[in-house]
Structures are given as C-alpha cells and as structure tokens.
Amino acid sequence: MGQFLLGKSAFSISSGSVFEAEAIALLGALDLAVSHGFQVVQFETYIKVLVDAIHNNSVHLNEFGDIISQCRNILSTNPDFRVSYVRRQENRVAHSIARASLSQPSPNLFHQVPTTLYSLTMN
User: Is the distance from CB of 121 to CB of 4 less than 8 angstroms?
Assistant: First the structure.
C-alpha cells in the first residue's frame, strides 16, 4: 500500500565488506518485521549482489553466505516478505537515514516518518 511501517538507523564499525554490511542490515530488518508482526513487507536495497544472492540457490561458504542463509530462512517462513533491488538514486530515504545515523551512535526506531524526511517519502 506504500505505507511507512518502521525505520531504524544504527551506527556500527565493521571490517566486513559492503555486501556483508547490507546483508546484516537486511537480516536486522527482517527480524524487526517479524518481531512486530508485520505480514506484507517490501524490503529494498541498492545492492544488486545481495538481491541476487537472496533469490538464487547458490551457496556462499563465507560470512556473507551465512547471513544470506539466515535471511532466506526468515523469508521462507514469511511468504509475503519481498526483497527487491532499487537503484541507489531512487532510495534517497534510506540513504538519508543512513547518513543521519553517523551522528547518532545509538540505534533509533522510527514509527513515523521523521519530519526531516517527510518530503522525500512523499516524492
């Protein structure tokens, strides 16, 4: 329905790849959606490698593969959860939340669209 359900920002220092960091963020988002009882959710990422890994049956024998397996397990038990690719330029809201998290070391949950991002979400 295009409705904002929940947002989260968190800052963490990692020595992993961008792919691992995005996979960890997706896993956290999936866990958060399950814990809040959401039924139909569209998860979007600008990391095409991540979306491709989620949707194909290949096995990655590394940390990235372990995270992908955990994501697949959650997705298999929640058939109305979807993970899709969007171009980075089209995901300005997520990019703005990520940038804002750099100045806030503790995690933040958004149950409503932050006023600073309202115009982006309406566009």
Answer: yes
| Cβ neighbours around 29 below 10 Å, total | 21
Render pLDDT for 33-77 as a digit per residue (tens, 0 to 9).
999 999 999 888 888 999 999 999 877 778 899 999 999 999 999
Dig out the tokens for 1 from the structure.
């329905």
Count of the separate structural domains present in the chain:
1
Q: pTM for the full model?
A: 0.75
The domain in which residue 106 lies consists of 17-122
**Tokens encoding 117:** 């991002």
Residue 102: which CATH number?
3.30.420.10
